[in-house]
Amino acid sequence: MKTFNEYIKENYPNSVFEGNNFLRFTKFEDELSVLKNGVGLKVSETASLIKLAGKDTIDFLHRVSTNDLISIKPFTKRNTLFLNEKGRFIAKSTLLSFLDENWLLSDFDPANRIFSWLNKFIISEDIKTEDVSLKYSLLELTGPQAESFIMLLIGDEVSKISPEDFRRFDADGFTFYLFRSSEKANCNSTKIIIESDRLVDFTEHLFSIKSVFDISLVGRHALDTYRIEKLIPAFPNELNAEVNPHDVNLLSEICTTKGCYIGQEVIARLETYDKVQRKLVKIISAQKIEEPSKVVYNDSGEEVGEITTHGVYTNSTGYASLCLLRKKMLLQNSNYHILLNNKKVSIKIAAED
Q1: Are strands 102-106 and 48-53 parallel, antiparallel or unpaired?
Q2: Is there a single domain that holds both residue 112 and residue 65?
Q3: 83-103 residue pLDDT tens
Q4: Apex 118 CA angle, 115 and 121, nearest 5
Q5: What pTM was estimated for this model as a whole?
Q6: Is 265 inside any structural domain?
Q7: What are the tens digits of pLDDT across the range 325-344?
């Protein structure tokens, strides 16, 4: 069986790979263009996927995570956050509900923190957990043509899928699970879970049925650039053990009326007493800023923020990056800079769309 990496090396000889990510498959400009104008295909060969079975599963997940999960119905999905006692991220997840089991989908984490964290709190509950991350792969289709392209795959059934639905499909010899995802307004995508041993065949199938659609694999550089433009946080850059949901504007995935969850007291106190310290913003620089340069300073030389995702692409306004900036700085008429090779590089805060 051909692995996805082998498939890429064979068909995309100019692809660039780093760590667990393909930085690009073809030209960066082409991949960014397809995200904005066509169908960008992101493939996660090993996303974090946990199966949970047992009569206490939903009640347990409802108690330890941020969203209202008690009311979830079979074959629907719901986003929720898992936080530590300090109100900071363990994982941003999507719960997928079946009749007799539940799947918890999160971004790939080599340390698999969410699996260990869940099992730490399961004591006497009737719950069995299984890490099936290596058995399944995740594909995500993003772009203005994505919805129409999905119709080629599953036909008119696409019109029957609500934003809350999670459906199994058997099409063209493939079995897969499909649902819609929305990171924020006008940032929609379709996610597909398929057994990993069918990933390469399924990827080739998507390209074989593309018809008039402009569909292309997209790597991390194009995806990060798209995220920066849309102010979308991602693990591990903006979603990690140093960040809380207030910092990255993910309060929409917290139910404020459900009662307690782990980290709830901290999150409520931050809001009640206006103690939120930081805000995720987009910054612009005339020069490209690369790691390890990431600390943002004001005119007084005070550290006021940190770049979380470094931009690799420049347009007419400059290089854009994501930054966690102290909120009080946004109320002041300050100038900001970063040190690049011991030289000051001016940056400015981009206006929100």
Answers
A1: antiparallel
A2: yes
A3: 999 999 999 999 999 999 999
A4: 150
A5: 0.94
A6: no
A7: 999 888 777 899 999 988 99
